[in-house]
Amino acid sequence: MTDEWWETFSYQGVIAAAVLYFLAMLAYFLELAGLRSVSKDEELDSRRTAVAGRLGLVLAGFAVVVHLVALVARGLAADPNRVPWGNMYEFTISGTFVVGLIFVVAALRTDVEWLGPLVTTFVVAALMAAFLGLDDAVLPLPDALNSPWLVIHVVSAVISTGAFTIGALLSGLYLVKARSTATTGYLARVPDPKVLDRLSYRMHAFGFPVWTFAVLITGPIWAHQAWGAYWNWDPKEVWAFITWVVYAAYLHARATAGWRGRNAAVLALVGAATLWFNFIGINFFSSSSQHSYAEGARQERSVVLRVAGPVETAQEVGVVVGADHARA
C-alpha cells in the first residue's frame, strides 16, 4: 500500500467518523425532542425516544473506532511513518478523538449520556473546521519535531486538552442549569448544578497534572533538545504557561477559598479560552512563534535546484513544494 493510499484512506476515515458523529448528534437531538414534555422523575413512555438515546451512544462508539483508524492511517501515510501530530489539522483530529473517547468511556461507566448532544456537536464542528480550514499535506517532520519527545509531549497535551474541553462543557452547562427553572425537557434531566460542578472539578483535576507534565516538564526538555534552551519566551510557551496559571488558580481557589459554583465555572471557562487561543490564535496571529510548523495553513517550502544549462552555466530554478495537492 502506498503513502498516497494511506493518506486518502485517512481522509475517508475522518469523513466517515464525522458522518457517524453527526448521526449520533441527530439521534441525541431526536431524544431531546421526545423529552420536551417529560419531567425529570417521569419514566419515558416513548420507545422511540429511549431507542434514540441508546442509538446515539452506539453511533458515537463506532465513530470513535473509525476516528482511531483514520489517525493510524494518517501516521502510516508519512514517509517515514510517524505519529499524526505534525500540524494543526492532525492535532485537531487527535484532540477531538480524545474528547469522543472520554465521553464514550464515561457514558459506559456512569450516567453521563446527557452530555451526548454537547460532545457530538462540538466534535462535528471541530472536524468540519479541521477538514475545511486546517487541512495540510502529509509531510516529513521538521528537525525540531523529529524527536521521541514529540510523542510524550503531544500525547500529554492532547489528553489534557480533551479533559479540559469536557470540563469546560460541564462548566458551561452548570451556568445554564443554575439559571434554569425548567421542569421538563433536556435541562430537567441534566443533573443538579452541584453534580455538574463536581464532575467539572474532577475533569480539571485529572487534566491539570497531565498539562503540567506537558508544559513544565516534557516541553522544556524538548525545547532544549530542539533549540538549545529550556525556555525561549515563545508565544505558545507563554500562553501555555498562562493556561497553567489559570487552571492552577482554579484548583487552588476550590481547595483553599472554597470556591464552588458560578465563580469556579467562570474561571474554568477562562482557562478553556486561553487553552484554545493558544492552539488557534497564536498559529494564525503570531508570525514569530517557533511553533509555526504546527500551523495548518498549507505551508510551502522552497527548494533550489541547480540545473546545467546549454552553455554549461548553472541556472537556479525555484521549485515550490506545497501542501496543496490533489487527493486521490
Keywords:
328 residues, mainly alpha, two-stranded antiparallel sheet, 67% helix, 5% strand, disordered C terminus
Question: Can you describe what's shown?
Answer:
This protein is mostly helical and 328 residues long. 67% of the residues lie in helices and 5% in strands. It is flat and about 60 Å long. The C terminus is likely disordered.
Give the spatial strand order of the biggest sheet: 1-2
Overall, the morphology is: flat
Global structural class: mainly alpha
* Binned strand content: 5-15%
- Helix coverage percent: 55-70%
Mean pLDDT: 79
Tally of DSSP β-strands:
2
* SSE run: HHHHHHHHHEE
Q: What's the number of structural domains?
A: 1
End-to-end C-alpha gap: 13 Å
Individual helix count: 9
Rg computed from alpha carbons, rounded to a whole number of angstroms = 23 Å
Low-confidence stretches: 293-328
For the largest beta-sheet, the strand count, sense and barrel status come to: 2 strands, antiparallel
List the helices and strands and how they pair.
Blueprint: H1 3-34, H2 47-76, H3 88-109, H4 116-133, H5 148-179, H6 186-189, H7 193-227, H8 235-257, H9 262-285, E1 300-308, E2 314-322
Antiparallel strand pairs: 1-2
Helix pairs in contact: 1-2, 1-4, 2-3, 3-4, 3-5, 5-7, 5-9, 7-8, 8-9
Short description:
This protein is mainly alpha-helical and 328 residues long. The chain is built from 9 helices and 2 strands; from the N terminus they run H-H-H-H-H-H-H-H-H-E-E.
